[in-house]
Amino acid sequence: MQPLLLLFLLCPPLKHPHAGPAYSISRLLTCLLSSQLPSRPPCDPANSTPSAYDPLDPNGNVSIRWDVMSWTTDGYVASVTINNLQLFRHFMSPGWTLGWTWAKKEIIWSMLGAQATEQGDCSKFKIAIPHSCKRNPSVVDLLPDAPFNQQFTNCCKGGVLASWGQDPTAAVAAFQISVGLSGRSNKTVKLPKNFTLLGPGPGYTCGPAKFVPSSHFLSADGRRKAQALMTWNVTCTYSKFLASKNPSCCVSFSSFYSTKIVPCPACACGCQSNNTCIMSNSTLLQKPGINTPRKDNTPLLQCTKHMCPVRVHWHLKLNYESYWRVKIAITNFNFRRNYSQWTLVVQHPNLNNVTQVFSFNYKSLLPYQAINDTGMFYGMKFFNDYLMEAGPYGNVQSEMLLQKDKSEFTLKQGWGFPRRVYFNGEECMLPPPDQYPFLPNSACLYSFGILKVAASALLILRWIW
Ligand SMILES: *[C@@H]1O[C@H](CO)[C@@H](O)[C@H](O)[C@H]1NC(C)=O
Ligand SMILES: *[C@@H]1O[C@H](CO)[C@@H](O)[C@H](O)[C@H]1NC(C)=O
Ligand SMILES: *[C@@H]1O[C@H](CO)[C@@H](O)[C@H](O)[C@H]1NC(C)=O
Ligand SMILES: *[C@@H]1O[C@H](CO)[C@@H](O)[C@H](O)[C@H]1NC(C)=O
Ligand SMILES: *[C@@H]1O[C@H](CO)[C@@H](O)[C@H](O)[C@H]1NC(C)=O
Ligand SMILES: *[C@@H]1O[C@H](CO)[C@@H](O)[C@H](O)[C@H]1NC(C)=O
Ligand SMILES: *[C@@H]1O[C@H](CO)[C@@H](O)[C@H](O)[C@H]1NC(C)=O
Ligand SMILES: *[C@@H]1O[C@H](CO)[C@@H](O)[C@H](O)[C@H]1NC(C)=O
Ligand SMILES: CC(=O)N[C@H]1CO[C@H](CO)[C@@H](O)[C@@H]1O
């Protein structure tokens, strides 16, 4: 008995529709037995790569490169380039914030294309006043209307960066920094430490800066190659566990063969703001300024059972001879946020045969080169790439036609529903698999019953022990 139970615990068939009843069983068992399991070693935050691993974008990272371009009287001028190499996670407004701790007593004389948020204590300087004297500066992008003489290539997007999968040319940011009191040779320059990246919320962990071979730059005519004096790289990875305790979106299902709509799980997003939410018909919504975003981005949610700012609905719409059709709708329940350049990532085994997507852009993602079951949807420019605040316009939708592989396609056991869904890079909570719409008179209802009995038997045995 013990090995069987352990098997359940060690391989919980989480979030897999085929695993319907087993899911709830394993959760029950986990609860019952957790006190008897050897506890896991605590996570070491300095070594957090495993928790940063995202199965749909296993190599996703943000790479930050410092190229020292010239020496000055007491330091250097570097151009800093941030590359968002994540397939589907972008930096939305109000954008990225990059921080670090200087290794010595460095200061920032000036910057182009970005600015330090605080000047800090520069009282030691009498004649020329530095841009920032903080030991741990935080740097943000400039806004698009920044004066021309403060701009730098790829700067001034208000910190907004597209994801690599959506638009590689818009996934890069850069600024120039003039550093003082660092020494002016590659022996005296010490690498900044403790890099941090906000995007705009928490979630990123940055590794240490490492020297890499100096970057090369081609001149505009392509006939001369210049070289940085020194180059170092920092790699940051995202972890949803650091970002927030609760999901920020949820998924609901429906299908043509069942009248049942499977709603988002209740309190899918934690229900923390359930005493500040407002009803969709509330007269408060007429108040001017109700939609104005707050500095700290606190949401103002429409009251729902799930209390998520975003819901993704997947409707199995039609079943043709050799095709099937799905309708996807994304609804915003936050009165204080417009999502620009939103992305939706879906994992489903039939995404290898997407025939047509009607009013979203679609791009297939191949996290594991051989398995083509993941794809990204995003809005069409000037049409639906902007998901408006909650209310009558706060939704976008599309339909998708998929070609059937007849050996695999089935309406049974929730096969037609996605395995994973991400909105803007955040994983959305799916309904528990045992609530998926079942085919009427389907055999799985019966097997579900059997499994339930088996489960209770297991539980009873466990109790008797
Ligand atoms: C960062 O991402 C890129 C693109 O996916 C990948 O080639 C590279 O190996 C990653 N770097 C690290 C340190 O994971
Ligand atoms: C350093 O970062 C840049 C992107 O900013 C990347 O293209 C390059 O491959 C990285 N180098 C190493 C050695 O990781
Ligand atoms: C510093 O420069 C010298 C030669 O100029 C070179 O040999 C050495 O590798 C450089 N060190 C670093 C850390 O770049
Ligand atoms: C970097 O962060 C670690 C842990 O947060 C801390 O122990 C260390 O002192 C920091 N280093 C510097 C130079 O601030
Ligand atoms: C709000 O959420 C708490 C749990 O966080 C729950 O106990 C309470 O009943 C909820 N209130 C409403 C009105 O839903
Ligand atoms: C809003 O709708 C709810 C039910 O959906 C109703 O009970 C309530 O009276 C309505 N409030 C207003 C101000 O219309
Ligand atoms: C969303 O965008 C519309 C139109 O651009 C604007 O009127 C509205 O104030 C914005 N809402 C928020 C919450 O920023
Ligand atoms: C993956 O699926 C997409 C969508 O059907 C298709 O366009 C693409 O060619 C497939 N790629 C591979 C490598 O099979
Ligand atoms: C029915 C059909 O077209 N199936 C194809 C789905 O896509 C895979 C490769 O992605 C093909 O091998 C199948 O033939």
Short descriptors:
binds 2-acetamido-2-deoxy-beta-D-glucopyranose; single chain; disordered C terminus; 7-stranded antiparallel beta sheet; COBRA-like protein; COB_C; mainly beta; 6-stranded mixed beta sheet; Immunoglobulin-like
Commentary on this structure:
The structure is a single chain. The chain is mainly β and 465 residues long. It folds into two domains: 61-242, Immunoglobulin-like (Sandwich); 244-279 and 298-435, Sandwich (Immunoglobulin-like). It has five helices and 26 strands. The strands form six sheets. Strands 1, 2, 4, 7, 9, 10 and 13 form a seven-stranded antiparallel β-sheet that branches. It has a six-stranded mixed β-sheet with strand order 15-14-16-17-24-20, with no helix packed on it. A hairpin with a 2-residue loop joins β14 (249-255) and β15 (258-262). α2 (20-33) packs parallel to α5. It starts with a helix and ends with a helix. The model is unreliable at 1-51 and 442-465 (pLDDT under 50). It comes from Cannabis sativa. Its main location: membrane. It is a lipid-anchor; GPI-anchor.
Distance between the termini: 11 Å
Tell me the strand percentage band: 25-35%
Percent of residues in helices: 10-25%
Kindly state the mean pLDDT as a whole number?
Answer: 84
Number of strands: 26
Structural class: mainly beta
GO biological process, one term: plant-type cell wall cellulose biosynthetic process
Domain COBRA C-terminal: 248-437
Signal peptide: 1-19
Protein name: COBRA-like protein
